[in-house]
Write a structure and sequence with these properties.
Elements lengths: L2 H25 E4 L3 E6 L16 E4 L5 E6 L3 E10 L5 E12 L4 H8 L3 H18 L4 H7 L1 H16 L6 E12 L2 H51 L2 H16 L5 E4 L9 E4 L2
Antiparallel strand pairs: 1-3, 2-4, 5-6, 6-7, 8-9
Length: 275
């Protein structure tokens, strides 16, 4: 082969290879298992194709189109903030929220909030819900008696806002990690709770003693009523009959004895053991 003819072909091939390598990042892309993407077309319709969600795998695109990739796995954000309780007392709260974007709606999230939807949507809404809910309770309720109720209210209200049609984010969980009160307020609440527990324990002992006294009274009344019934049924005739029956049974005994008829009280037989 003539080298003069082969050289231009080699130059063109090398140039083409460099062009392809240089444009490879613009032509090809790969999405991982937890990634989804939408395409923005710069020419022609020039629109964001919100409803065509691209799934995991290897893909080809025109170099002038732009790909927006979203991580649709579960995300977590931890936030610390200062809030005011119902009485205007300042306290600091640490919360954790777990969430994920709706995979089928990432195009709409991109259109409204872009890819930084966490800082534009999730964090502000979480902070807003925490402040609104805690503003309806006292520090004591938030710290002790109604902590789970407060947590549930924050979770419910935050989830409702994030999953709204225009936001398209699913909240998985929200936890209050810590509630920090001023030292003197915290001590006062703990002292009050301790006094309430002591009062409950004292009341329990009183109730137990009252129950025991009532049980004894009822038992005594029952015993007295039973004795009254027995006494009223022991007539002289019945006693004589029982005495005669007992005498007959004792007379059958092999031991020698003396039975005096009419020798006892009320004419009952008098039994004398002869041994």
């Amino acid at each position: 082969m003539d080298n003069r003819k082969f050289l231009p072909l080699l130059v063109v091939a090398v140039f083409t290879l460099f062009v392809v390598v240089g444009l490879s990042s613009s032509l090809f892309y790969t999405l991982g298992p937890a990634e989804r993407a939408v395409v923005f077309y710069k020419f022609g319709a020039e629109k964001l194709d919100k409803d065509n969600i691209i799934g995991p795998g290897f893909h080809v695109k025109a170099p002038w189109n732009k790909i927006y990739v979203f991580d649709v796995s579960e995300n977590k954000v931890e936030e610390g903030m200062d809030v005011l309780d119902k009485n205007g007392l300042s306290l600091s709260v640490d919360v954790s929220v777990r969430f994920t974007p709706m995979p089928s709606r990432i195009g709409y999230i991109q259109e409204t909030f872009q890819q930084d939807y966490i800082s534009r949507l999730v964090i502000p809404e979480v902070r807003s819900s925490v402040r609104q809910v805690m503003g309806r309770y006292t520090a004591e309720e938030i710290y002790s008696t109604k902590r789970s109720e407060v947590e549930d209210a924050i979770k419910s209200e935050t989830a409702e806002v994030l999953s709204h049609e225009g936001n398209n984010v699913i909240m998985k969980a929200l936890l209050i990690r810590a509630i920090n009160l001023p030292a003197q307020i915290k001590q006062a609440i703990e002292n009050k709770l301790q006094q309430e527990q002591e009062a409950l324990a004292y009341q329990f002992r009183l109730d137990k003693e009252k129950s025991e006294a009532e049980r004894k009274r009822i038992a005594a009344e029952g015993e007295a009523a039973a004795n009254k019934i027995v006494n009223s049924s022991l007539t002289p005739q019945l006693l004589k009959m029982r005495g005669i029956e007992a005498t007959i049974e004792l007379s059958k005994s092999p031991n020698s004895k003396v039975v005096v008829i009419g020798g006892g009280d009320e004419g009952l037989p008098l039994i004398l053991n002869n041994n």
